[in-house]
Write a structure and sequence with these properties.
The protein is of the alpha/beta class and 365 residues long. The strands form two sheets. A seven-stranded mixed β-sheet has the order 1-14-13-12-2-10-11, with helices on both faces. Strand 4 and strand 5 form a beta hairpin. Helix 3 packs parallel to helix 14, helix 6 packs across helix 7 and helix 8 runs parallel beside helix 13.
Length: 365
């Protein structure tokens, strides 16, 4: 709104001044045209979008989609990161410890687990199927949402009871004619979670975990990563924690996946969700990463900071170009053709400088 009227006024002033100086209308018009061409804001207009497009492309190749350009600006400003646990630091895919079950128990457990769509049953069925277990032939199978799955096998009553918490971890009981065998579950940590957290810390970000999971389970993960963590936090609690950080002048990055993380993702200065997140979380997040690796989160912050550095360089060059070129055009030392070449070269310099970001994600990997 200010630049275009200013340069048009400058060109008009140049025309009038040279006419008053007796240069004639033709020479005065040529000088005014040269001023207009040389001040064309192509380099300034390309300073931000060129850098953002190249940076976004580099991050896409590393598995992270940035939803809009302003997200990069905010990601470059974050100074703290808050993680959800399940589905974020972990893969959200439960795996069962079935080493204590004999062959018959494994077959019965698989047959019962296949009936239910509960995440624990899905995890148990997946674990046993990967081991090549074949399901037993169970009849009269009934699923009771408050009790579990039960049926009859070879005249014996069998049941896979509802999940419970044991020492901060999920467990279920496989019951055969009254005799119960406990099956423990664990959620696999993302293989590079520790490296990603350390990378974020090296960038000056403090890290913490806020999760709705059991306190003991959160403490175990937090201890493994060497960061503080709190469990049993409901959506309102997460939102309150993010609001408190904002009020203290911090600029938190929220990384979460669950439906209950949506308000916290929206309240954070910047936010990222995994590709397996709920639709609400993906909509609320500024960026989405795919795959089993957490490192794209750290790369996003690193590349965003490099992007803003390149943007500042682009603006500095564009302003410097105008400071040097405009006086020459006003003095009548530049023809319209030379002005067009200079203007084009300034745009190429900005684009070339932005292209240096193409390798930024690879260099940081």
């Amino acid at each position: 709104r200010l630049y275009a009227p200013a340069v048009h006024s400058l060109a008009a002033l140049a025309f009038v001044s040279w006419m008053i100086a007796g240069a004639g209308w033709h020479q005065s018009l040529v000088i005014a045209i040269a001023v207009l061409i040389i001040t064309c804001p192509c380099a300034m207009g390309l300073a931000v979008p060129a850098a953002q497009v190249v940076a976004s492309g580099a991050l896409i190749r590393k598995g992270l989609l940035v939803k809009d350009g302003s997200a990069l600006e905010r990601l470059a400003e974050v100074d703290a990161v808050v993680f959800d646990k399940t589905g974020t630091l972990t893969l959200g895919e439960l795996r069962a410890d079935v080493a204590g079950l004999d062959g018959e128990q494994q077959a019965i457990a698989l047959a019962l687990a296949q009936v239910s769509r509960h995440p624990v049953s899905i995890g148990l069925a997946r674990t046993l199927s990967e081991r090549g277990v074949q399901p037993a032939e169970i009849i009269d199978i009934v699923e009771d949402s408050g009790r579990g799955v039960s049926g009859s096998f070879a005249g014996r009553n069998v049941a896979l009871e509802k999940p419970r918490q044991a020492s901060g971890k999920t467990a279920v009981d496989l019951r055969i004619d009254g005799a119960a065998t406990s099956i423990g579950f664990a959620d696999r940590m993302r293989v590079d979670a520790g490296a990603a957290v350390r990378r974020l810390q090296s960038l000056g970000l403090s890290a913490t975990i806020l999760s709705g999971d059991a306190e003991l389970a959160v403490k175990d993960v937090a201890s493994e990563l060497g960061i503080p963590g709190r469990g049993g936090i409901d959506p309102a609690g997460k939102l309150a924690a993010l609001d408190a950080m904002n009020a203290e002048g911090q600029r938190p990055l929220m990384v979460g996946d669950g439906l209950n993380d949506g308000p916290a993702l929206a309240a954070a200065h910047a936010s990222i969700a995994p590709g397996t997140a709920s639709d609400a979380s993906q909509q609320a997040a500024d960026a989405v990463f795919i795959g089993e690796r957490l490192m794209p989160v750290a790369l996003a912050v690193q590349v965003a900071r490099r992007t803003m550095a390149i943007v500042r360089q682009n603006f500095g060059f564009a302003i410097g170009y105008n400071v040097l070129a405009v006086p020459l055009a006003l003095a009548g030392l530049v023809t319209p053709l030379v002005a067009a070449i200079a203007m084009s070269l300034s745009s190429l310099v900005v684009v070339g400088n932005s292209l240096r970001l193409a390798r930024s994600a690879e260099d940081g990997a």
